[in-house]
Design goal:
312 residues
C-alpha cells in the first residue's frame, strides 16, 4: 500500500458545520495537534478530536511514527501525481509543511468525503483525518476543510495533568519519573526515565492501563496473570520467576515477575506485572528495569501502584 493510499485509508472520521472558524486554536485533551475547528465542531466524546453534535462529521487527531512524515514526503517527490486517483497536495501550516489528500468514498450506504493530512513533529508525525457525509458537504466544503488544515499547530508536550485526566483511574503518585506519555489515549500511559530517542528500555519505566477482561474465577487468576504477561511488548527470552496472589488496595490481585532481555541493545531486565482484578476488567501495571537498577526501581514501581485510585 502506498503512503498516499495509507494516508487516505486511515481517514475514517471527521469535519465541520460551517465555513466560519473558532477564534482560537483548540487542542483536544491528549492531542499534540490543535487547530481552529470550524463552527459546529465540538470535542468528540469517544475519540480524540472534534465532531458535530449529531456525530455525522468527525475530525480525528492522532500521532503516527516520526518516520511516517518522511515517507510521505519521499513518495510525494517520487510521484507528485499520486496514485490510484488520489493526488496529494502540500499546504503551509504553523506546524510546518503539511501534505493532504481528498477522496470520495462510502461509509456503509452513505457517500462521504474523506480528507487526511500529515504534519512534521519532533518525535512523531501529526495526523488529522476528516470525514464529511454527503448531506453536510455543502457546509463543510473542500475549501473549508483546507482552511481548517491550514490552521494546524503542534505542541511538543501534552500537559501531564491533561494526560492523567484521560485515564479511567486516578494516578496520584509519579515516583519522580521524568517523562509521561500516552501510549493509547485514555487507555495506556507510560512513565519513564528515558525517552523515545534514547529508548525506554535502558532505564526504568512503567506502563499503566486496563485489560478489558478478568479472570473467570479466583482459581483462574494465576493462569490469567501468566497468560497476560506473555503479551508484554518488546520482551525477548522471557522467563517467569515468580507469580503469586496479593492484595492491592484491598482488592484481589496478582504479581508476576519476569527476567528477560529488551530493547535494541538487548538489555537484561527484570519486569513486574501487577493485575488488580475487577468484575469485568483488570487494572494492569507493568514496571521494567535494567537488572542492575532493580533494587532502586522496584520501590518506585510499588509507589506508583499504590497511588492508583478509582475515579468518582
Amino acid at each position: 500500500m502506498t503512503p498516499f493510499r495509507l494516508l487516505a485509508a486511515v481517514a475514517l472520521l471527521i469535519a465541520a458545520t460551517c465555513s466560519a472558524f473558532a477564534a482560537d486554536v483548540v487542542f483536544p485533551p491528549g492531542a499534540h495537534v490543535g487547530m481552529k475547528p470550524l463552527v459546529g465542531l465540538v470535542r468528540a466524546k469517544t475519540f480524540i478530536g472534534f465532531e458535530t453534535e449529531d456525530q455525522s462529521v468527525r475530525v480525528l487527531i492522532a500521532d503516527l511514527p516520526a518516520d511516517a512524515y518522511g515517507e510521505v514526503v519521499s513518495a510525494f517527490k517520487a510521484n507528485p501525481g499520486g496514485s490510484g486517483g488520489i493526488k496529494p497536495e502540500s499546504l503551509e501550516t504553523p506546524a510546518g509543511l503539511g501534505y493532504y489528500t481528498i477522496e470520495s468514498a462510502r461509509d456503509g450506504a452513505t457517500n462521504v468525503r474523506r480528507y487526511s493530512m500529515i504534519l512534521p513533529g519532533p518525535t512523531f508525525s501529526g495526523y488529522i483525518a476528516v470525514q464529511v457525509p454527503e448531506n453536510a458537504a455543502k457546509i463543510y466544503t473542500d475549501d473549508a476543510v483546507r482552511q481548517m488544515f491550514a490552521s494546524a499547530v503542534i505542541r511538543n508536550e501534552v500537559p501531564v495533568d491533561e494526560q492523567l485526566g484521560l485515564m479511567p483511574f486516578k494516578v496520584t503518585e509519579l515516583a519522580d519519573f521524568k517523562n509521561v506519555r500516552m501510549v493509547a489515549p485514555g487507555a495506556a500511559l507510560i512513565l519513564a526515565d528515558g525517552d523515545e530517542k534514547s529508548g525506554f528500555e535502558a532505564k526504568p519505566f512503567m506502563i499503566l492501563g486496563v485489560v478489558a477482561s478478568t479472570a473467570a474465577s479466583p482459581d483462574d487468576r494465576g493462569r490469567f496473570a501468566q497468560q497476560v504477561a506473555t503479551t508484554i511488548p518488546g520482551v525477548r527470552d522471557g522467563r517467569i520467576t515468580m507469580s503469586e496472589p496479593i492484595r492491592i488496595d484491598g482488592q484481589p490481585g496478582y504479581e508476576t515477575r519476569i527476567d528477560a532481555t529488551s530493547g535494541k541493545d538487548n538489555t537484561p531486565v527484570t519486569i513486574v506485572q501487577w493485575l488488580r482484578f475487577g468484575s469485568q476488567s483488570s487494572v494492569r501495571i507493568i514496571g521494567s528495569s535494567p537488572r542492575t537498577d532493580w533494587g532502586t526501581a522496584f520501590p518506585r514501581f510499588r509507589a506508583v501502584r499504590d497511588g492508583i485510585e478509582p475515579r468518582g
